[in-house]
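#structure-requests
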Amino acid sequence: MICPCGADHSADAEGSRYFVSVRDAGRSGFPAGPYATHAEALADVEAVREIAYRLDGMTHFFEWGTARVDGDAAAKLGPGKLNEALKVSRERAEG
């Protein structure tokens, strides 16, 4: 299956998970995720960036994207810190 990014992720490792990623000045993090597919993570990048910006205006200058994490490492990361805020934002938009 071809992802909206144009790549075919069918060969990704079993248990791979995707996250919205952020980088700034050599630091990186995964503020949202895990997602089962790259397309899901990609679809949330802008919403997560907007939530982060409301919390801290400096995040406007950060690099935003997605990342794949394989195997046990994905489970060790746990849920993204902005997952709950993203859920609330979706609920408000829907209702």
